[in-house]
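This part of the workshop introduces the protein records we will be handling. To make this concrete, we reproduce a full record directly below.
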Amino acid sequence: MNVRTGLGGWIIDLPALLEVGADTRYAASLQDSARALGLTLLVPLPVLDEAWAGQPHSGHRDRLTQLYLPRGPWMPARFADVPTAVLASHTVTCNSDTSLGLVAALAQLRGWPVITSDERRHMLAIAAPGLMTVPCN
């Protein structure tokens, strides 16, 4: 990752998206850091769908809805952004969780760390050995 030229970023997993929806200090710090360093915050759309569906409050959903389109450091990622064979391989190692498989595949292909929880970090480590993760909770 080349921080000086802004060629890099972080993959944002479900736990971090829940922080964004809740508008926590962590979420604000994540966004501020990405902007200051010129990094992209890559949001896998199926993971965003999960975060959005799990929000009981409209304010949380409104904050997440803004991430469906590229804006500031935020950039959506789709299944089509990953070769089918790579996605299939990671999905199998993620207990058939296609969303988490997409996170692992994107991280492996881009070489970017994943912002996630300890629980999901363990599953990602199996899917993509050597993958760097950053805890969000």
Observations:
- The chain is about 50% helix and 15% strand.
- Residues 1-5 have pLDDT under 50 and may be disordered.
- The first strand starts at residue 9 and ends at 12.
- Residues 25-37 form the longest helix (13 residues).
